[in-house]
Design brief:
One of its GO terms (molecular function) is odorant binding. The protein is mainly α. It contains ten helices and two strands, in the order H-H-H-H-H-H-H-H-H-E-E-H. The chain has a two-stranded antiparallel sheet with strand order 1-2. Helix 3 packs across helix 6 and helix 5 runs antiparallel to helix 8. The N and C termini lie far apart (66 Å).
Length: 394
């Protein structure tokens, strides 16, 4: 038996966020769960604070500041997105309830396959994102072991720490804190993004189901193949089916609008920050010895950030494309053989669908492939300017 829609699309991010204390509160042990969630968030906010202190101390040293800044932007993004996620839990409950509405339930095996295909696609893409992020964290953890010079112990990250690397157990405590915080950050990063991405792809699956329903509208030949009673009955059935398709489409629009209202600020913050993060990572790669662990980790981190950016733009683009295809599928239906009220309803629907469904970050930036290319161009432009300035200073 097919699982419910929430489980199909959100099982992995739901489990990750639950085990990190960020998901909806359980029915029991609420106080312990809240304390655990506060502890997890303190590990992230303290990391950002330590980054600020280090940058303030190193101000004037461009290499040190840029090396610390990319992680500051990333951690700040995690803290912002998770905090917004916690604030918008009421909207999350609404979205979860909408996903289980009767209008979104599959009616046959083909509809079930649409849901499984789209959920499988976004899960595979998010799994690549997760594996890339965890690989980067692991490489960062190896850098103090591989890149240490003259036996001097160093921490994985350039942040201010209340403990020093020269004495035990201070070094072990500091190392454990940094790696614990960065791994938690990676899981939070992927899980929060996966919730929004999975809901967008859920909308894509529902549009495919609507297309299949529209294709089930039967022709009504004017020849004598059908009796008058059969023709009238088929016309009524087609009209009723088309009305259900339009109600389904309106439900999808309301669902996507709710998703956008809930997560648009998170996505806008991420897209805006990606320009700075990609630019800074590029600077660090040019300043790192090729083939070193640090070089490989930064290169892998670049892949991680680009994959995250691509995921958002790709999912939004898929949603827009399917909404445009749905309009074409409606036009290709045997509408000319239907009743006048069917044709009037089709005309109204197609006029409305001239404006496709566009998911926008910050209610302003459309998630699409051109947006992905534009962000890459902006990142490269800033990188070229800053790199040229740094070379002149040298």
């Amino acid at each position: 038996m097919l699982e419910d829609n929430v489980t199909i699309f959100l099982n992995r991010p739901r489990n990750i966020l639950f085990y990190l204390g960020i998901w909806l509160r359980p029915a029991i042990h609420v106080t312990l769960y809240v304390i655990y969630a506060v502890t997890v968030m303190l590990s992230q906010y303290s990391f950002v604070l330590f980054e600020f202190i280090y940058i303030a101390q190193a101000w004037g040293d461009m290499d040190a500041v840029t090396e610390a800044s990319f992680l500051l932007f990333t951690q700040a993004s995690v803290c912002y997105k998770v905090t917004r996620f916690l604030i918008n839990k009421k909207n999350l409950v609404v979205l979860l309830d909408l996903m289980e509405k009767e209008v979104f339930q599959p009616q046959n095996k083909k509809h079930e396959r649409f849901l499984l295909d789209q959920s499988g696609m976004v899960k595979r893409l998010c799994l690549f994102f997760l594996c890339s992020a965890l690989t980067t964290c692991t490489l960062w953890g190896l850098m103090p072991i591989v890149d240490s010079t003259e036996g001097q112990r160093i921490f994985p990250f350039l942040i201010w720490m209340p403990v020093g690397p020269n004495e035990s157990p201070q070094y072990e405590l500091g190392y454990f804190y940094q790696m614990m915080a960065i791994y938690i950050s990676a899981f939070l990063f992927i899980a929060v993004d996966s919730v929004a991405l999975s809901m967008i792809m859920f909308g894509c699956a529902q549009l495919e189901i609507i297309m299949d329903k529209v294709e089930q509208i039967q022709p009504v030949p004017m020849s004598g193949k059908l009796k008058k009673e059969e023709r009238d009955l088929r016309i009524e059935d087609n009209y009723a089916l088309f009305v259900r398709c339009l109600k389904h489409h309106q439900a999808v629009i309301r669902f996507i609008e709710t998703v956008e209202d809930t997560y648009h600020a998170n996505i806008f913050f991420q897209l805006s920050g990606s320009v700075a993060i990609i630019c800074i990572i590029g600077l660090r790669i040019t300043a790192t010895t090729p083939g070193s662990v640090q070089f490989i980790s930064m290169l892998n981190y670049m892949v991680t950030m680009l994959s995250q950016l691509f995921l958002y733009c790709w999912c939004g683009n898929e949603l827009t494309i399917r909404s445009e295809i749905l309009r074409e599928v409606m036009y290709l239906s045997p509408w000319h053989e239907q009743s006048n009220r069917f044709r009037r309803l089709l005309w109204i629907a197609m006029e409305r669908m001239k404006r496709p469904i566009i998911f926008k970050a910050g209610h302003y930036i459309p998630l699409s492939r051109p947006t992905f290319v534009a962000i890459l161009r902006s990142s490269y432009s800033y990188f070229a300017v800053i790199n040229q300035t740094r070379n002149k200073e040298k």
